[in-house]
Amino acid sequence: MVSALEKNKKHKLKMQRQKERIDSQIAKNKLERGIILLLTGDGKGKTSSAFGMVLRALGYGQNVGVVQFIKGQQLSGEELYLKNKLPGVEFYQMGTGFTWDTQDRSADIKAAEETWAVASKMLQDQDLDLVILDEITYMLSFKYLDSDMVIEAIKNKPHAQSVVVTGRGGGATLREIADTVSEVKEIKHAYNNGMKARKGVDY
Amino acid sequence: MVSALEKNKKHKLKMQRQKERIDSQIAKNKLERGIILLLTGDGKGKTSSAFGMVLRALGYGQNVGVVQFIKGQQLSGEELYLKNKLPGVEFYQMGTGFTWDTQDRSADIKAAEETWAVASKMLQDQDLDLVILDEITYMLSFKYLDSDMVIEAIKNKPHAQSVVVTGRGGGATLREIADTVSEVKEIKHAYNNGMKARKGVDY
Predict the structure, then answer these.
(1) Which residue among A181, A182, B49, B155 is least enclosed by CB atoms within 10 Å?
(2) What mean pLDDT is reported for chain A?
(3) Mutate to test the interface with A, among B25, B49, B78, B196 (most CBs of A within 10 A)
């Protein structure tokens, strides 16, 4: 039997080694600039993760811009919060509803272009610390927006600005220019087990 | 060459079919209750996703409780925001620092147990619509908390309450009892390319 004392000793040694590894990695990392973060994949959690980063940035009093492509016509919880409680955040929504609701390709393209005009301004705004481009990847896969144009604009963002891109897919070039890429995989989803989408959780 | 008109027509048909599929799925889903959501995997975005759901719930005026296990001693952006701007949210942090900082197994276990006491109360509170158990999975893998005890408490949450569990791993039983499981996979991380962790993005 291993005594509690021995367990504690072993633990301390292990943690000391782990701390050394972590500290040496931290010491090695010297680059400081805003990053490009891609949150992709088919699982739940991409948009909410972007909004969590909005909170994170606001905690330090940073300036934030949020642009949402493809959204239902009803405001979701995080959008209500943004509109009502966070007037300091620059917030723009395409707001035409889902593309299967509009069923109008030309109108969708026009709305996408108008929304992009707002987004591309934010991507040039030195004062914004964080810009969220929520679900913009669909604009690329539907070819509503030119992929090269969007990627160039993201690449040319101000040095200190971080950009978060969310949505399934996005293409190889977007993955390439991103500093961090997380793929959110759906292992299972309540929706496929007869559960209604839930206020405060799903929207 | 396909004319723009034809493209629009084809698009409309395709979207009509998609809308039918989506509407029929929505009509089929009749279950309404709070869900258990597990955000796991090694990628960036789990904690921020949980905090995004906090915003989502607050947008509807819901009541939220957040318990954070394993945290640095410095407050991160989302924690600062929660403490300073959202006094209505019940918020508790283990706050002993990372386990590789404390290097003290007995003290870690004691802190984990104290933190669990707060969490388990929240999991019995009918008034809370959403409870976040941030990074609790590590308490299970380190065996700081008894896995069966934690899983029973989550399973027995109030009917309408949703619970979000974050952290790598978590074990098979937790995956089983969860309604929705997303695995956030690290495709790449700026940290591995010499980039410093960034305020408002990483913490």
Answers:
(1) B155
(2) 92
(3) B49
